[in-house]
Here is the input.
Amino acid sequence: MSLTRRDFVKLCTGTVAGFGVSQMFNPSVVQALEKFVPHVFWIQGQGCTGCSVSLLNSVHPSIAKVLLDVITLDFHPTIMGSEGEVAWGHMTDVAKEQKGKYIVIFEGSVPVAENGHYCILGEKDGKEYTMLETTLEMAKNAAVVVNVGTCAAYGGIPAAEGNVTGSTSVTKVLADNGIKTPVVNVPGCPPHPDWMIGTLVYAINAIEEKGLEGGLGEVVKILDSEGRPTPFFGENIHDNCPYLSKFDEDEFSKVFTDKENCRYELGCKGPSANADCFKRKWNGGVNWCVENAVCLGCVEPGFPDEMSPFYEAG
Amino acid sequence: MSKSSTPAKDGKIKIAIDPVSRIEGHLKAEVVVKDGKVVDAWLSGGMYRGFENILVGRDPRDAAQLTQRLCGVCPTAHSTAACLALDDACDVKITKNGRVTRNLIFGANYLQSHLLHFYHLAALDFVRGPGKAPFVPRFDQPDLRLDEKTNAVAVDQYIKALEIRRICHEMVALFGGKMPHISGQVVGGTTEIPTKEKLAEYASRFKEVRKFVAETYLPTVYLIGSVYKDLFKIGGGYKNCMSYGVFPMDEEGTKTLIDSGVYIDGKDEKFNPALIKEFVKYSWFEDSCSDLHPSKGKTIPDVHKEGAYSFIKASRYNKKPVEVGPLARMWIHNPELSEIGKKQLKDLYGIKAVKFRDLGEDLAFSLMGRHVARAEEALIVADAINDTWLKEIKAGEDTYVESKVPVTGEGIGFTEAPRGSLLHYINIQDSKVANYQLMPATLWNTNPRDDMGQRGPVEEALIGCPVPDTGSPVDISRIIRSFDP
Here is the structure.
């Protein structure tokens, strides 16, 4: 099995037929994809596993294809066969062997209070490893860091007001510790599977075509000021909302079940959210938050504090 | 595991498994093995986020959105518990169509969760996956007994189940907006009135899911059980259990699809919410948080506390540790078994059972008994979707009742997440959250010792677990995972 061109186009265009993102993939390199299968480690900090569960919802390509053909997933607490020291040892061994060449994916934020004690990930030879030290160690020697989900990218709910764990984003922890590995943020609570796999595939593709350094340079070029790939996060939800004309005409829904009018007065945060949900939609394209209720702005650095109260306008 | 482990003079070997993988969250198991068996166990929950504290001062309606983010596997369970607590606090009575739509959303998530648990979290305990990461490396002696042909079929099912669980999520999203983390359930009902078209989409997807549950998942669980018969004899634990009841069948909340109840020391009791308390002597929380009903609950971490070993509080019913989850629910509800279940129990095991309790305490309360209970429950939920809710639902009829957040008030929401009993408690002052307490299933099952010194249910279930090779303690994690921690 290899990734077909059709998979790419599907992945990049969402459910509404094709514009924009498909151009970022050069079909000529698709055939070559099988050659570069990066080692990937997926580390979970203060998260809920929702990003991982969302990843499993990938349609094009299927998650089975991703796991078996696109990447070598050496560590993922939710799906790997291994556990305990066998798993932890495998991760550290392969990371050593693949130094500078592997991809590390973070899900969940990093608590830094109490020396990181609020999140313990594993144990080897009687020593416990915190999310904080594991983040630094694994990021330092990676080719690229990919933060999936708003927690890893920006802190998310564990870092919201009232938290006592000193929780913060992976991005900030790396910056504070002078780690210069390129960082890509794929936010969302959770991120759409297309956003995660699309970003990975883009990076793999670019590295294959231009080598490690050149390829990563290409990846960095497509990021916005919040570190997000613009093909997925480059457009504002409100500006592209099918209910925009209702907003312009001051026709607002007063109750959730009114599907005719604009949801702004019910608390919709579409005006402050940048993502392509409006065309991609969710779960095989069956629905999306605005059609269903309101946008919570979950892809933004200010989620949740700046978006709360969720059901009040403004 | 700890390869350096050598027996002490008394013949005891201490081993740790950290991380316990293929679960949701961060868990470490430490056990003492003597003469090839576990003689003591400690479970440690290694992560704390502090949702209770983060919720204080916020708009109460935000709770249903924020608390979903506790768990990406069962967000709809938290949404349900939070909305029930908010319905209670805001004194709102939902419509019949709202109740049924909620059941359709939650029911689809139940099916997703049970399939995910068996195939993608637990099955690798019995099945050899493809020979590459993330399926390898494994323990040296993984005790995988399926013959090559059966194993190949099981791997195909693993892949197929990925697709089926994705379809379940599409069913949730049709009325819930998206999954994980739905937008469509709020205080007062659901935000989307089902249309004929969406109901047809739900029903057509459901058809495929139901077929898989009935014809593939259920028989496979029994088949695997027949190859690992000894796993019906381990992991029993206290044999005490509890269910709050789940899936309201009327608007008064008096009848649920799965019954509520408590089973302690061989006796059935009516569930009494006043008897729930949390204890923290061995948890990293201030001692002032101990011995409290959730309505008086406090969550103040203390990571330097002497003797503590977990971020999980010890939840107790009438001071007793109780198991929650599918096994607890099937034991309390005691439904008639599926036809395939009856047949396979007879053919494969020689057991004549009509109702769940006919399995008997010793077989039902076991590692494999939990998998059987989960699979039987999946069919019950699928049948309710098919025979009841899809027939009751009215396209175009209202699902939402408007309400106001009170200036002061309190509310409590009881439900059953797929993995077990879930409670949300909210106290509102000045129209803001003044106190919010959460008691998820993980807290009931994987908790540490309590103030009375009793082990948590999973800790107790590990006692007696065979560990013939301390380098490959496979049954320890199998027992833990059977609870879907």
Observations:
- The CA atoms of residues 283 and 456 of chain B lie 12 Å apart.
- The first helix of chain B runs from residue 51 to 55.
- The radius of gyration of chain B is 22 Å.
